[in-house]
Design brief:
The protein is mostly helical and 334 residues long. Helix content is 70%, strand content 7%. The N terminus is likely disordered.
Length: 334
């Protein structure tokens, strides 16, 4: 994952998951704390997203486009405990040196970074599709649904294909390299290097420009689109609220359901933005200037985005009564 690293008290950009930290010794207490935190992410993310997927698939009342798009996000979130967490835990226990060699080791190096990152564009693109569907539902309530069953399958496939294309560069930039001094092998991007003697890790200007372009593509632009769509949606819902007493009872129920689903979708976007904002803000600052920050804060900023894989099921549980009832039934049967 694109992450940040503390070097000589200065926050630096580093896209290979704190590989520089292999040059330093962490205390046993610090390692235990980080392993425990990653283990908690693994446990809560795995249980929460598996239960979410199972509940939606087994509860007929939840069979809607919005719920199935949430399932799509849950599937992508499961890639984090499957690929990212094991790598992080092993790095804390055994160090950041790569212990799988040869062609197979190089393939694993590339696949782990690709699979661990594809969940980000999948989640963002899914949130945009949900927002567009909500926009159509609220702004044009009398028109037929925008997304049919056939379109849904096509859209989900397109989300994964576009996300794979966006993240495909990781197959080209990550490779295994051996340090001559230590003899250790590392899984690094082509612009990275580890130098424990002068404690430096420099990124070229072209690398920083590429990072800025990627950042604008996968974070800034999508969230501008989401902000515009949900601003219009909220204004439109408020207009509905002023005249809801004039509508028949069925229309009132429909408007109430629309508002609940819409605000659940908005909560998903806000949750994603909140956990990613510190990382994106600090990383953007690095493109233009150096930023002094404590090592503990660096590690927190790098860790925080992964907590999003826990938030999604919690939001779904909070906003959706059918989900809570369906989850209770599944837990009773088990």
């Amino acid at each position: 994952m694109t992450s940040v690293t503390i070097i000589n008290g200065v926050l630096q950009s580093n896209t290979s998951t704190d590989s520089f930290l292999d040059c330093h010794n962490s205390s046993v207490e610090a390692k235990a704390l980080k392993v425990s935190a990653w283990s908690l992410i693994f446990l809560l993310s795995s249980i929460g997203n598996v239960l979410m997927i199972t509940t939606v698939l087994k509860t007929r009342a939840l069979h809607s486009n919005n719920s199935f798009f949430m399932v799509n996000m849950a599937i992508s979130d499961l890639l984090v405990p499957l690929f990212v967490v094991p790598q992080q835990v092993m790095s804390e226990i055994a160090g950041y040196a790569w212990h799988v060699y040869g062609v197979f080791g190089a393939c694993v190096c590339k696949i782990i970074h690709f699979a661990g990152e594809i969940s980000i564009p999948v989640s963002i693109l899914t949130m945009i599709v949900i927002a567009v569907e909500r926009f159509h539902c609220v702004v044009f309530p009398l028109r037929p649904p925008l997304i049919s069953a056939v379109r849904f399958r096509i859209i989900v496939a397109a989300i994964w294909i576009v996300s794979a294309v966006l993240e495909s560069f990781r197959f080209f930039v990550f490779s295994l390299r051996q340090r001559q001094v230590s003899g250790h092998t590392y899984c690094l991007a082509i612009w990275e290097d580890i130098d424990c003697n002068n404690k430096s890790l420099k990124a070229t200007k072209s690398t920083l420009n590429s990072f800025l372009g990627y950042y604008l593509l996968v974070s800034v632009t999508p969230f501008i689109i989401l902000a515009v769509l949900y601003s219009v949606i909220v204004v439109k819902l408020n207009c509905h609220n002023k005249t809801v007493h004039l509508a028949p009872e069925a229309e009132q129920l429909r408007n109430k359901k629309t508002r609940k689903v819409t605000f659940m979708s908005l909560a998903v976007v806000v949750g994603f933005a909140v956990v990613w904002a510190p990382f994106w803000s600090v990383s953007t600052k690095l493109v233009f200037d150096q930023l002094k920050i404590s090592k503990a804060l660096v590690q927190t900023i790098s860790f925080l985005p992964y907590t999003y894989t826990i938030i999604n099921p919690l939001i779904f549980y909070t906003f959706n009564k059918c989900f809570r009832n369906g989850l209770k039934q599944i837990l009773k049967c088990s």
